[in-house]
Every structure is written in C-alpha cells, then in structure tokens.
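Meet our chain:
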Amino acid sequence: MPEARSLLEKLDPILRYVPTVPRPRTPLPLSARLFWTFVAVTIYLLLMMTPLYGIQHAVVPSFYFRLMSLIFATSFGTLAHLGIGPIVIAGIILEILVFSGILDIDLEDPVDRVRFNALMKLLSLAIAALEAITAVTIGWLRVSSPLIGALVVIQLLIATMIIILLDDMITNGWGLGSGIGLFILVSIAKTVMWYTFSPVLAPDNYPVGVIPALITAIVRHHLPLDLIYSFNRGGTIVGLAATILLGFFVLYLELLSVPIPLTFTQFRGIKYSLPLRVMYVSVIPIIFTAFTLILISHLLQYVAFATMNNPALKWLACVRRAPEFGGAWVPCENSLLYFLWSPPPPNITPQYVIVHIILYVVLCTIYAYIWVNIAGMSAEDQAKYIVEAKLSIPGFRPNVRIVAKYLEKYINALTITSGVLTGLLAALGDLLQVFGGGIGLILLVEIALQYYAIAVSEHLFEMFPGLRRFAGIERL
C-alpha cells in the first residue's frame, strides 16, 4: 500500500536513532560466539534475580499461569517481570501486518529488514510501557505512591531495552541462534532445576526441590504423600520421573524422520535424502494452544468472580473456596472453567483428564495445519524449494506441481501426527506434574536440539570452511 510505505518513510528519521548492536566486523570463531552467548545468559539470569526497586509486593494473577512465565521467560517482581513478552507480541503483530499486505515491507530487502527490526524495537518498548503501567495501576506490582510507580515503569522499560539489545547481539552474529529461543530455554531450565534441587522450604516443611525433599524424608523416616504426587507442591517424585521419561520420549520423537529420496537433476548419479521430521511442527502450535486456553480461561475467571451469586452462569464460570485444599480458590467441577484450568486443579476428576487431553490434541492439530500453510512449510512450498535447488524425486519430472502432489500425502500426515503427538504429550506432562509443564518440556527439548544442531554445524564449518561456500551459506 502506498500510504503504508509513505508512513514508514516518514518514520525513518526516528528509526535511525533506535539503538542496535552492529554485526562483528569479522566472522567470530565458535569459541567467541559461545562466550558472548554465555554473557547474554548471565545478564538475563541477573535480570531474573534482581527485584524491582520500590515495589511492596508482586501479585501473581491466578490466570497468569506458570506456562506464560515460561514462554515469556518472566520472573515476577524482578527486572525480568515482562521478559521477552513485548518482543514476541511486537514480532507477531508486525509479521501479521506484513504477511497481510497492510504493512508494505519486503523482508528480503536488507534496507526494509533493518526498518522492520527498528520498528519492532519501538513497538516492543510501547507494549512494555503499556504492560508496565497496567501492572502498576491494577496492583499486580504494588507501590506506595505514583512517583514510585513511575520509577517502576522506567525500570521495566530499561530492562526491556537491555533484553532487546541482548537479542540483537545474539541474532547479529555475536552469539548462537536467537535470543528469544535462548531466554525461553534458560527460563524453562531454571524452573526444572528449581523443582529438582531447590533447598528452600515449602509450606509442608520439606524443600521445594524433590531431591533435597527426598533426602529430608529419608532422614526423618517419613515420606509424605504430597512428595510422591500432589498438585499442592511443585516438585514431586512422580513429576521428576515423568520429566525424565517424557523428556527422553520427546527427544526420540524429535529425532525421528521420514526420508524423501532425491537426486540432482544435473548429476543423476548423486543421490540425496530430504528428512521430514515426524514432529514436523511442534513449537508454534503448542504456544498458540497455550495462548488460546489461557485467554479463554482468563476471561472466564473474570466472569466467575464478577458473578459469584448468579446461578444462571455457574455452568460457564464458577469458583469456590475449598477448605480441603487449604482454602484455595478452585473451579467448580460442573463449569466450563474447570476443564480449561491449567495447571490441573487439585480437585481433578476423570472427566477433567479426558477433556484436557482432547482440548490440547484438537487445538494443537488445528494450529499445526494452519501454521504449515502460512509459514512456508506446505507441500507446495517444499516442492518449490526442491525444484529451485535443482533436485528431483526419482521417477518424477522436476515440476513444482508434480513434486507437491507427491509430497502432499507425507506432509499432511506428518502435520496431523505432529499436532496430535504434541497435544497429547503436553496434556500428559501437565497431568503428571512434569517440571515446567508439558508445554515447557517440549519447548526445552526442541530449543536444546536446535542449539545443539547450530553448535555442531558451526564447528563443522569452522573446521572445513569450504563446506560453507558449497552450501551457499554466508557467515554472519
């Protein structure tokens, strides 16, 4: 659109002053990139451990589940209170505007790409300001005066800018992978380590970490039932076992692939295999599934607390205080809110288990299908990549339409399979009290594998620089 293009050009004088981390003048060796990645992780962990100055108390809303804090790598009441949330939201908004044609930006053009990144930083800061002001205004971050509230907002804006620059540093060739993925990995790993090894005492007078709690139980000659399996504490023996077993199973599935035989059209004797992963798409659908369930649950909880005495709406949203669970608010078993509650409520029933699994499987499958068709992963897109790379399937002409028809049955099956498996594993992880939740575990394994692949490939390219030129990859 000409209007959108002219608006962007008018913003250029402002976008030029947006802070950025320049690319290194010369390609950095793997050891240097690992060092700067470690520096970024250390700084982010310090942000997660440094409390905000001036707040009296940080309230964690009941609907803001641990899942959101994992996905956005947040730590309530600290400088990382907003985490990477503003960056993720800004990126999604801008990508939707670009793909829909509302924003006239060509992401293949280097100039437009720089403009896009600068615009995303500005939008991230704007979203961070809105979230920070909201958190202070409605009391999630309690302060003693408006002046202290303004100081808290400024702290969060500075922390968000630091996080943006850390992501910029890693993405621009100083580190490995992307800062967003790295910070999510750090957040989930921190949660897993906390529920495994933390010596801090829980309300049951046993350490939060399951291993110290187990040692304490052995010393006291008493093993409480809550330590074996309970939704009242974070680290349990069942949760630790489920984290290990499901983690290895997810890793096994992530490494499975269906090979598609290919040959070079110019060199008939050279054969090649295109591996299509069984978990063809897993991360994005599970994140969108989590957002969907959290949003609906959030709205229903507002309805529940706003209509406590309205019996006509109790089937939709109903909560009650449960003396049997220490007076905590729990959803009523016969309401829709009950089946959307996550992590699972203490008053769990077989109906909840069934509906919880079905919801995750259905939503993950739907989002997997949508994402494959809009993110360049469909059969047509893969066929285009194959033909453009001068490859062909043995026995078929190197034609995009023909190759796409051949790949369609594989990609459609893998899309549905990966959606069903991702939803099933995420739901089972929640029910078995996996540390970090089922979604967190999938993200942990997926991102860790990506970083392992990046490190191995970078090491290989460093040992044999000619491979990089042969693969047509430009060094950052």
Notes: Residues 472-476 have pLDDT under 50 and may be disordered. The beta strands are 55-58, 141-143, 257-264, 271-277, 319-322, 328-331, 391-392.
